[in-house]
Amino acid sequence: MSLPRVLAVDCGAGHLVCGLLSSDKAGRLQLEKLALDAFNPDASLEEEWTSMIVQALADTARREKFSGVAAVGLPGHHILGKFIKIPAVEESKRAKIVQFEAQQNIPYSLDEVIWDYEVVSEQGLDMELMLAAAKTEVVEGACAALTSSKLSVVSVTPSSVAVTRCFRHNYPEVTGTSIIADIGARSTNLIFVDAERFFVRTIPLAGNTLTQAIAEETRNDFTHAESLKVQILSGESDLPEASPIRLAVRHAVSSFISKLHLELTRSIVNYRRQSGAEQPTAIYLTGGGSVLAELPGQLQEKLKMPVELLNPFRAVGIGAGASQAEAFAPVLASLIGLALPPARGKKAINLLPPAIASKLAFRKRQPLLIAAAALVAASLLPLVIQSSRTLAAARSQVEQVNKGIRPLQVMQSKIKENLDVLEQAKAEIVAVQSLAESKNNWINFFSDLQDRLVKVEDVWLESLQVLRSGPADAAAGLFGAAPVPTEPQLDANGNPMKPVLRLQVSGRLLDRNNPVSRVSPDSYERVKTLLASFVDSQFISAVEKESFDANTPGILRFDFILVIDPARPL
Fold this sequence. Notes:
This protein has 570 residues and is α/β, with parallel strands linked by helices. It folds into 3 domains: 6-352, ATPase, nucleotide binding domain (Nucleotidyltransferase, domain 5, 2-Layer Sandwich); 374-447; 457-570, Elongation Factor Tu (Ef-tu), domain 3 (Beta Barrel), CATH 2.40.30. The chain has helices spanning 49-64, 91-105, 136-148, 159-170, 207-218, 222-233, 244-275, 295-303, 333-338, 354-456, 521-534; strands at 6-11, 15-23, 29-38, 68-74, 80-87, 113-123, 126-135, 151-158, 178-183, 188-193, 198-203, 282-286, 307-309, 317-321, 459-468, 501-510, 540-549, 555-564. Strands 8-4-1-2-3-14 form a 6-stranded mixed sheet. Strands 11-10-9-12-13 form a 5-stranded mixed sheet, with helices on both faces. Strands 15-16-18-17 form a 4-stranded antiparallel sheet, covered by helices on one side. Helix 1 (49-64) runs parallel beside helix 3. Mean pLDDT is 85; it is low at 471-486.
């Protein structure tokens, strides 16, 4: 089966491996290009792991100029894996059950992690699943580093699942149960594999355990102890055989192998008890910790079963751009597995962040959407052509109608201009009529005023001042009242109201009976009667601000304001 070209990115606890894989002409998987970066795997720097792996990803992608799609693998110490059993139900009903199990088995809020599952085996009425979860910031950090380097991340897979795929691809003839011990820097994945299912147990026994034991015995820091371990175990150290440091390394290796043997024995017993499986027939070692020269022999002797190193290139070719691949084979099993597809027809664990998964799903649908849009466009083409012809005919008819309308539009414009002139003339006539009426009203008003003064006798007016409301009064208002608005006021019907006219009047009354003393109450009554009579006038709507001054002997001074009725304007 031909596989697409993919960049596999294996993020380890102390290293980053990137490999470009594709299929050759015969359909055989081939590693075309390989890049490996190592960094300090000190467990005390765990909080810095994400930033270190992100920096390594960015540097490697830029240096090697990788492009295309990428499949990412996460190490065991960043993966929480659980194997659960649920009733065998339809896939449409399975999601709710798995969601409930995830809430029960993942010791974090599901909002804090990215999780997924895959079916491990189906046995009668039961179904066994593997739940896997990783902290959101860890997954998003790795994906963001690749996305910023213009790589499209298509999957995020636990390294244990990737190693299982690599084993099945390279050892298809193996039957029965086998154990893969993937020994990393921070953790070891013990993977039980048979023809139908697999099981993973992650233990905190790995390369860092060995380094920490050396550091404690030699009283060096972790970084120095790691360097000594690598030099001695690789045969590059010049230290004499009897040196304390070599002795400390041998003690640490012996202790590590003994602990690993105990963990393997315990895991085999528990696995057989829980699954009812047969005794494993072989153990395959992989990972950086598998390079210990005495490890296969001692485990084989202790466990009484064949132990060998897993060869990730047994059924995988190596291209010219990855000539150093065989030297790094112990740490490449996960890398190879990342490029391999899951079993046909089976859902695989993918811890891809939801935002990236949505974009990827849309990108996959794009060709179909484009094809559908093209079909819709093609089906509408006859209608578009017919509509174009109809539109052209309609435009021609509109143009002909417009030619006939243009003379009428010119005539309409002239009529409108004449109407504007007519309205202006009407306004001028109304103004002239209003002026004429105003002049007549003044004559009639003064005549009426004179008649009322004569009736009272011995009274005369000294001053009469016109007070009109308008813009000049808008700031302070008339007579101390509220400011008069400059905008025209409207009546209940919405018509502009005529401005209110006020007359400020001052007058005197002679008290003949008291020419040298204060005026009598009768004089006050006479003036009040006069003011009250003004309200009966057809020109006056109200009398305001009446005031009296009797300080002059025999004379009563009075002031008031007449409010002119707007219906009879002056």
